[in-house]
Amino acid sequence: MDAVGFGRRTFLAGAGAGVAGLALPGVAAARSSGPRVAVFGGGVAGMTAAHELAERGFAVTLYERRALGGKCRSMPVPGTGRDGRRDLPAEHGFRTFFGFYRDLPDTLRRIPFPGNAGGVHDNLVPATELLTSFAGGREDLRVPMALPDGLLPQLAPDVLLRQVRAAVENAFHLPPHEAAVFAQRMMVYLTSCEQRRLGQWEHTTWPDFLQARGKSEDYRRIFVDGPTLVLSSTRTEDASAHVAGLVFERVLFTLLGRGADGPLDRVLDLPTNEAWIDPWEAHLRDLGVEFRLGWSVEDLVVDRGRIASARVRDPDGGVGSVEADYYVCALPVDHARRVWNEDLLAADPQLREAAKLETQWMAGLMLYFDRPTPLVHGHAYYVNSPWSLTSISQAGFWPDRDFPADYGDGTAADCVSVIISDWDAPGVLFGRPAKQLTPEQILQEVLAQLRQHLNDSGRAVLNESSLVTWFLDPGLTGLGGPNPTNADELVVQPVGTWYRRPTARTAVPNLFLAGDYVRAPLNAACMESANSSARLAVNALLDRAGSPAPRAVVHELHRVPEFELLKTEDLLNYRLGLPNTFDVLPPL
């Protein structure tokens, strides 16, 4: 081993008053004297890395430029609280804790929360419906987020093919031949071996995979645009079929109760920082993690193939140097590549490829109403909205909060969190993309697009007269001007992106990567990938340190036995240059 040694005595030292069932045995209760680790970035990836390392006796210092939680945090709307109330809660954009997440729920269970035997994980509550909202006077669809008991107890391929076709045809009123095509394409992906997924579907666009050419607008809007712009946060035209297909597969398995942590769609029962981020910070401090909030890393100094130090800037603008035994770069990729200097890129060529990863905007607008606005008990997807809007009415999921009594000036009774997924498409009111509009114009445009969907059938589902205030993600600056910027861009995944994603282990012996752009079992830019990648980074660090501590568990994607034989056959077909078996059968 070329790294600093790590003895068993160091790992076990400081074992103290942990919470039973919420942490590893032998958790350190105070600042450890073990090897020093500098973690740069305080989002899900950085906090997960700090959590896993602190439990294993490392001396961790976390540096975060703005606020803990990263894109997943909630934040106060400054100056809105009155008469002892909290400021109104806002956020970068709402989040979903999908049932197919496995690593993140494990972390949530290990964060103590008063009154919860299962820690923060007990703050997750199911969202039971999805509102698929159409414009033009068409009736909206409320899709349940759970299947009736006994439906599809077996994943027999022929049965599943017909059931998917029937569900698509009846729920979305698609022509029978289009429903059949979609069902067949899903069977192709479900039965594809891993080699085909990475060798063929990773290089095939999602529209081409779904044979979208010549299909109806509904087919394209629901099954082509929807998953890529909402679930996968990427452009439709060049989105990888591997990414979108994987999301559909995970959704299906979760609905069928296969390998899931819980219901498909879950949200927190309090604003995110109250339910998760603040308790997490407190727990990490109890574990001995030190925080440097307001500090930013500006350069990583390479000497003889290792990171010798990091140049950082403190909250007062002073520049200093940080030295540690190990470094975890948990910055989002759009920030990380700014500190990957030429020496570092030369030391590890995979970073040069990772620096080319594409990002795009996705950000939220909060709407506060003076009355409850229960549009649906879950998320809403506005199918025909040019900006690919989604939303959730949040206060209805916060039973322990009397919204007007606890937040703001007492006039707001609910908050509808809206995510704008497409910032480059022209809108319906001003005819320009969101990036070219002022915040006030963005508000008016979003309201216009919501009206077209919710108030198009003769009922005023969304009453704008009850809107009392609003708040746009503060990471957006310069809107309406020549150089708009977004401090929190998301990784997008056009074809071939998997081969640009780096591993958590780098060629630099004391540098490790964590973030939703790093290779992880779930190939998507999401909280689960951020958490999994941090666990992979910690395990790589433990290997380099020669640590005897138990490795962090990284759950592999659940595999269903009904498809394993078909995948084995497909591997043979793939190696022989033949298509997947279902790719040559006519749709049923």
TrEMBL record:
Every Amine oxidase domain range: 44-542
Domain of life: Bacteria
Protein name, UniProt field: Uncharacterized protein with NAD-binding domain and iron-sulfur cluster
Species of provenance: Saccharothrix variisporea
Molecular-function GO terms, alphabetical: oxidoreductase activity
